[in-house]
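Aim 2 progress update. The chain analyzed this quarter is reproduced below.
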Amino acid sequence: MPARSAVQRRRITISVPEPVATAARELSAIRHLPVSQVIGDIVLAERRRLLEQEMIEGYKALAEENRALAEQAMVVDNETWPVS
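Predicted structure tokens:
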């Protein structure tokens, strides 16, 4: 995450179950960071994870499409054309 001074900050208010608030405070203490930064880091990491998952799924879909096209090309390539 960029330096705190370089990032525009916006205040939001959220309500979370007590176990989540406790975990956030514990992580904050362990990492020596403000709770807001710990939560922000987690949100950004989840967003990255979701994007990476979408990319993996897209690459798999493209791989299947490319495989099908390659198979079609092999069929055409293996055809023998009459010699005139």
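The chain has two helices and no strands. Residues 17-77 form one domain. These observations will guide the mutagenesis experiments scheduled for the next reporting period.
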